[in-house]
From TrEMBL:
This is Uncharacterized protein YlxW (UPF0749 family). Residues 65-92 form a coiled coil. Signal peptide: none annotated. Keywords: Coiled coil. The keyword Manganese does not apply. One of its GO terms (cellular component) is plasma membrane.
Length: 258
């Protein structure tokens, strides 16, 4: 029998096969490396997310959970207050009076945050003893930062009001706080939730352990909250200086009006 000729392939089929991607050994190896790298990153992220909590005791985890829940409750209360203020300003019959009261309330809040108004309320008084003279500015910075993270609303170190721009530097025989030399024992008055603030200072690996390793000690006294007597009073004020370069800017056109 004579061999029949093979059917000719369509030119379009040959063109498609020529343009189709072909996997080479180098491409396969690169794909395997990328997959391995992605798997390693995922494992590392999961380990990082859990390693910080694995070493904590159950009681510490419960305190951290309670603190987080309390912060969420405070934020919800603040949101409800802001929404109520908005309704008064937009729907109230006496919108001018409501706006004036809201402005005064905001001015008081900003005065507390800026340190230009005295403050009082529940909180704690933390005293850092330094018999060895080993406390440095970094220790007080860590203490203030942990208090802020725990929701501190007003802080005073010795006779100096602490605000967002307060500077801590080492000085002979003490710590320079915004140009004022504070000496041991360092008395830190704080207004905020007493339980949350005191718990924040006792977290393992926190400021208490740091101070203890430096030879210093930390004593915390709570005031107010849960029916406890007394309150914390902060009388030191922060003097504002006029800006040298910054000037108020008029509002520019909105993004939609470009």
């Amino acid at each position: 029998m004579s061999e029949q000729p093979r059917p000719r392939r369509s030119p379009w089929r040959r063109l498609w096969r020529a343009g189709a991607p072909r996997a080479t050994r180098a491409q396969l190896l690169a794909g395997l490396l990328c997959a391995a790298l992605g798997f390693g990153v995922v494992v590392q992220v999961r380990q990082t997310d859990t390693s910080g909590l694995d070493d904590l005791r159950e009681a510490d985890l419960v305190r951290i959970l309670d603190d987080t829940t309390e912060r969420g409750d405070r934020l919800e209360e603040e949101l409800s207050s802001l929404q109520a203020t908005r309704r008064e300003l937009t729907e109230g019959s006496d919108s001018a009076r409501a706006a004036a009261e809201a402005a005064q309330q905001r001015a008081r809040e900003y005065g507390l945050l800026a340190g230009t108004l005295p403050a009082h309320g529940p909180g704690i008084v933390a005293t850092v003893g330094d018999p060895a003279g080993a406390v440095r500015s970094t220790h007080l910075i860590q203490l203030v930062q942990e208090l802020r993270d725990a929701g501190a609303e007003a802080i005073q170190v010795g006779g100096t009001r602490v605000v967002a721009g307060t500077a801590f530097t080492d000085a002979a025989g003490g710590v320079l706080v915004d140009g004022t030399t504070e000496r041991a024992p360092y008395v830190v008055s704080v207004i905020g939730d007493p339980d949350t603030l005191s718990t924040a200072l006792d977290i393992p690996g926190g400021v208490r352990e740091t101070l203890r390793s430096a030879g210093a000690d930390l004593d915390v006294r709570t005031a107010g909250g849960d029916g406890a007597g007394g309150e914390v009073r902060i009388s030191a004020l922060h003097a504002l200086s006029a800006p040298q370069y910054a000037r108020p800017a008029s509002p520019g056109p909105s993004a939609g009006n470009g």
